[in-house]
Amino acid sequence: MFKSNFTFQLAFLLLLPSLAIGQNIEIRVFNKTGYDLDSVLFDQFYLGKLSNDSTVFLSGISEIVMQGDVPLRRPFGLIEGKKRPFNLTPCGTKSKKVKAGSYAFDIFIYETGNEYRLYWKKHE
Length: 124
Prior knowledge:
The structure is a single chain. The chain is of the alpha+beta class. It has a single domain (23-122), classed as Immunoglobulin-like, CATH 2.60.40. Helices cover 16% and strands 49% of the residues. It is built from 1 helix and 10 strands; from the N terminus they run αββββββββββ. It has one helix at 2-21; strands spanning 24-31, 37-42, 45-50, 55-61, 64-67, 70-71, 76-78, 95-98, 100-112, 115-122.
C-alpha cells in the first residue's frame, strides 16, 4: 500500500511541471483604431469591449498560431455605425505555432467608405 501510494505521488510530482509549462504565452493588445471596439476576439479568446487607445493583457495561453510576426487570425471587433464585411478564412501558409513568449500587438483599421477591416501589427 505504501509503495503504491508513493509511486502515485512521485508520478504526480513529475507530471506537475509539464502541466504548467503549457501556458507560457503573455499577450498585450493595443487598440489603435481610433474607435471603441465591442465584442473583440483574439483568436478564440473573448476580450469584450476595448476602448480607443486602451490595452488589454492576456495570460495563461498555451499556444497561438502566428504568420510572420502577427497572429494568423484577423482581429474581430464591432464598431457602432460601421459595416464590417465577413472575415476571410486565414491562409496557413508559412504559419507556425508558438508555445512560449511575450508578445504585443496593435489592432489597426482599414476603412473604405462605411466598411472596415481590422488587422494586426507588431507593437513597437
